[in-house]
């Protein structure tokens, strides 16, 4: 069968397949080398400079055409993995990628380590270099390529009536089983991490992973989740659609149809909160979070560019309508509200998507605290408990949410560049050019215009 419009829409939702557009032949600079140059060199320049995945795998493109060619492990298997990560195919040959070929994972073992990090698509925090990953560099690292196109929720095998398999959730389960002979049962900590669709996949599968490890005899292991840019919101949308094609399909419509298409599996405790027709809401982090027992750390940009892209908002080069401006304001406000009761969170007010997949992830700060420091404080609070973390101490905080109301009011945000001209795009100047009443907007935000001008200097 051909990939239907709903699937294409889901691939656009949160960059559901691949997040990197980088050239795998470019040189990778260490953090120390980067700090010698321009500290805030801009995302486009950085993407070109850092090239390959840091300590994981060469990248694949995130276009729909690439997705249609990348329904198996072939794109990854054809390129040499870095830092001694080795490919293993699943022992259960019935659990497959989209095209029916065997699924698998990459592994870099660290002998003697009692910590495991299992990552659903991404880079950065998987690096084995202490300069780029000061907290998890010596853990056993597992990279699970995303070849199921189902936000890690599917259980549907390939059959005569279905040309594609959607078995993301089962792939995760089989990876855990295959890691038993390699020592995961003796682990003290297993961190299930993911970015974008992988982040949502962590939320959907965390309790199933914890239950499976317990079933396998690893009752002492502490299972935790790290969710990066997978905390999507569904704001009120005026468009009603039958989801017949990708352009007209709303995120809600795509998720509803996708859930049926994939034979998706959702956390049981979350499902119990909703009627059957509303179970799709378990794909939303703020709906699902309260039903989780395992500790979760949420990393989320306040102004996630993939969330904005769903509304066709591209602040680097396009005009900003009043409707889009309202959506932008609502997104920031609703995102902050949704994270209010999450103990462990790192949310910079930047315009971006994914954080721990970037090799320069250590540079971002909220309230003067880096993500690496916040993660360290969070894990310290969990050392003696499987339960929710204690209230963070002022000296070691890990609930960090930017309260400034403007995109890129955080001085550690990367510089934006216009896609067409390549020139630096100052966010406030861009709004001036789009004929927005600056003083009126500043009054709406209860901010002083001069303070906003100062905040713009950070990028």
Describe the structure.
With 459 residues, this protein is α/β, with parallel strands linked by helices. The chain has one domain. Helices cover 30% and strands 11% of the residues. It has 16 helices and 13 strands. A nine-stranded mixed beta sheet has the order 1-2-4-3-5-6-7-9-13, with helices on both faces. Helix 7 links the parallel strand 5 and strand 6. Helix 1 crosses helix 8 and helix 6 crosses helix 7. The longest helix is centred in the middle third of the chain and has 19 residues. The protein is globular, with a radius of gyration of 21 Å. It starts with a helix and ends with a helix.
Strands, helices and their partners?
Blueprint lengths: L4 H8 L18 H6 L6 H8 L13 H6 L4 H4 L8 E4 L14 E5 L6 E6 L19 E5 L23 H11 L10 E7 L1 H19 L6 E7 L22 H12 L5 H4 L13 H4 L7 E4 L3 E2 H5 L12 H17 L6 E3 L3 E2 L12 E2 L2 E2 H12 L16 E3 L25 H7 L4 H7 L4 H7 L4
Parallel strand pairs: 3-4, 3-5, 5-6, 6-7, 7-9, 8-10, 9-13
Antiparallel strand pairs: 1-2, 2-4, 11-12
Helix pairs in contact: 1-8, 6-7
Keywords:
disordered N terminus, 16 helices, 13 strands, 459 residues, globular, disordered C terminus, alpha/beta, two-stranded parallel sheet
């Amino acid at each position: 069968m051909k990939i239907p419009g709903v699937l294409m829409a889901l691939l656009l939702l949160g960059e559901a397949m691949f997040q990197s557009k980088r050239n795998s032949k470019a040189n990778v600079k260490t953090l120390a080398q980067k700090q010698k140059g321009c500290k805030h060199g801009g995302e486009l320049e950085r993407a070109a400079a850092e090239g390959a995945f840091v300590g994981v795998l060469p990248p694949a493109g995130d276009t729909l055409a690439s997705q249609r060619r990348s329904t198996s492990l072939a794109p990854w298997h054809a390129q040499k993995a870095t830092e001694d990560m080795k490919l293993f195919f699943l022992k259960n040959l019935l659990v497959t990628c989209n095209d029916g070929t065997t699924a698998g994972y990459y592994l870099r073992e660290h002998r003697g380590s009692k910590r495991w990090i299992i990552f659903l698509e991404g880079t950065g925090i998987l690096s084995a270099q202490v300069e780029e990953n000061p907290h998890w560099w010596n853990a056993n690292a597992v990279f699970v390529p995303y070849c199921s196109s189902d936000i890690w929720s599917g259980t549907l095998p390939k059959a005569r009536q279905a040309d594609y398999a959607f078995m993301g959730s089962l792939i995760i389960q089989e990876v855990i089983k295959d890691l038993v002979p390699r020592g995961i049962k003796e682990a003290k900590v297993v961190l299930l991490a993911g970015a974008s669709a992988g982040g949502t996949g962590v939320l959907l599968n965390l309790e199933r992973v914890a239950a499976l490890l317990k079933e396998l005899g690893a009752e002492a292991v502490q299972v935790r989740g790290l969710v990066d840019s997978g905390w999507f919101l569904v704001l009120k949308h005026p468009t009603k659609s039958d989801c017949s094609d990708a352009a007209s399909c709303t995120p809600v419509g795509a998720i509803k149809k996708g859930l049926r298409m994939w034979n998706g599996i959702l956390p049981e405790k979350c499902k119990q909160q909703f009627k059957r027709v509303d179970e799709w809401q378990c794909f939303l982090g703020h709906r699902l979070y309260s039903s989780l027992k395992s500790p979760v750390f949420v990393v989320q940009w306040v102004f996630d560019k993939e969330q904005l892209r769903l509304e066709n908002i591209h602040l680097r080069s396009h005009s900003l309508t009043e409707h889009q401006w309202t959506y932008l304001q609502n997104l920031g406000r609703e995102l902050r509200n949704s994270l209010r009761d999450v103990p462990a969170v790192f949310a910079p007010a930047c315009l971006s998507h994914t954080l721990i997949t970037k090799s320069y992830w250590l540079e971002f700060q909220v309230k003067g605290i880096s993500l690496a420091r916040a993660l360290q404080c969070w894990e310290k609070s969990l050392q003696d408990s499987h339960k929710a973390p204690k209230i963070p101490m002022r000296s070691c905080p890990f609930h960090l949410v930017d309260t400034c109301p403007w995109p890129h009011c955080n001085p550690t945000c990367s510089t934006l560049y216009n896609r067409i001209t390549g020139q630096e795009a100052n966010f406030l100047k861009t709004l001036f050019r789009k004929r927005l009443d600056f003083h009126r907007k500043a009054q709406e935000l209860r901010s002083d215009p001069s303070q906003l001008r100062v905040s713009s200097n950070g990028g």
